Amino acid sequence: MKHARAQEAVLARMAESRAELIAARIASEPVSVSRVPRTLPATTRAAPWFLRTPNAELVALALVGVAILGLRRTVQTAVGAGLSASTHRVVDGVLDALRN
3-state DSSP call for residue 36? Predict the structure, then answer.
């Protein structure tokens, strides 16, 4: 019981403080709402366009692959991996269909 009363007292004080903070904020708010234009962080603006894309990791990986392995070997590896994943997905689908 003692804990419950103490908790109620703390919650009541928290509610009072919250009400005071909300009242103070409403009183200090400007009447009109102004929109602030969004700017990108400096680190994002400095990056080349191909690193600002949603697939930046893939683009960077492709560039590193071309630099290390060469264009032909990079394309062979990417196509092989894509065909392997696609084939695995199709075979998995067929096997699931046969089980059901």
Answer: coil
